[in-house]
Fold this sequence. Notes:
Radius of gyration: 24 Å
Number of helices: 14
Number of strands: 17
Bound molecules: L-homoserine
Distance between the termini: 49 Å
CATH architecture of the largest domain: 2-Layer Sandwich
Strand content: 15-25%
CATH class of the largest domain: Alpha Beta
CATH superfamily of the largest domain: Dihydrodipicolinate Reductase, domain 2
Largest sheet: 11 strands, mixed
Helix content: 25-40%
CATH topology of the largest domain: Dihydrodipicolinate Reductase, domain 2
Amino acid sequence: xxxxxxxxxxxxxxxxxxxxxxxxxxxxxxxxxxxxxxxxxxxxxxxxxxxxxxxxxxxxxxxxxxxxxxxxxxxxxxxxxxxxxxxxxxxxxxxxxxxxxxxxxxxxxxxxxxxxxxxxxxxxxxxxxxxxxxxxxxxxxxxxxxxxxxxxxxxxxxxxxxxxxxxxxxxxxxxxxxxxxxxxxxxxxxxxxxxxxxxxxxxxxxxxxxxxxxxxxxxxxxxxxxxxxxxxxxxxxxxxxxxxxxxxxxxxxxxxxxxxxxxxxxxxxxxxxxxxxxxxxxxxxxxxxxxxxxxxxxxxxxxxxxxxxxxxxxxxxxxxxxxxxxxxxxxxxxxxxxxxxxxxxxxxxxxxxxxxxxxxxxxxxxxxxxxxxxxxxxxxxxxxxxxxxxxxxxxxxxxxxxxxxxxxxxxxxxxxxxxxxxxxxxxxxxxxxxx
Length: 435
Ligand code: HSE
């Protein structure tokens, strides 16, 4: 048997504690699978005294994660501190610089500094592994990087944030308020320390930035992602979606288009019969459209201690075996800077909810503004009589579903409808994603 692999873990929150427990529980299996003992040698966290259900006295304690990262007592550094820079970045760089492999679950760090860290890892001939950074327990990084190496990928999209999917599911099925569902997700340990990262779509964007690089062989370009969160989604949208045969999901989508790579995060209408619409609660799902496999969907737990620890321990096991891939699938210097397709050129169907004053000519004006721009309507429905069900007196909800059109075109049509003065509120627009 090879010499033991000595691990240093910085960050002992829900995930760090779950990793230590999993390494304890699976010690024999991991030794058999990798051919060497895998053991924690040192740890670092903000609070040594916090109750975690683990005996920390067996490990070396480091007040400063950077000292742990550089320590001669460890071979591999696991970064679970979080945050896109600061001490997480300093510790990861210190470990790589000292010739130690790094395992991280930190999508924000990778979205911002992934290229720099990948270059450093390659220069030092060590691993930079981040399976846990995207979609929790789903092995999507390995799938894209190794499993689909013989494919050309056209599109990768998915439900990448467990907190948002949990909120949308609870709102739809239980009719609960947004705030109540968010607080449940927080108490279950799914949400980020700052939940605006979840509900604002930024956590999904960080994950999408990583998937895009792996799928298309491009340098990470998180700035190019158009991001919208779920806080504008109301029960009225979820009800209307259900009646029209759709469900609302927060999707991250990266797609090859004639104008370049389109990257977007936004609430999305998906057909109720589609695979992705069946994904409920904290579960994540990623679908890949590729030339050889056509369509591949992976579904699994996207957040929480156990699921995330599963991905981290898988990376640790690879490193114990001596596996070292180029972090983003190609040598970092070979990743290309692809042109980014602007959102204005996005083409797709749209759901539009309008709060319309019940006046003669309103429906005709709406239809005319759409027709002027050659926007074809799949359906137009007035959901109820004016003033019913909590709507303002004399105001009725009108829902339109369009066939494929450009983002720029639908926005122009809606600006014209607003200018006509028939609307009591600003239009709600949700893009439709077809399978
Ligand atoms: N806050 C994240 C989520 C955790 O809800 O999916 C996993 O990255």
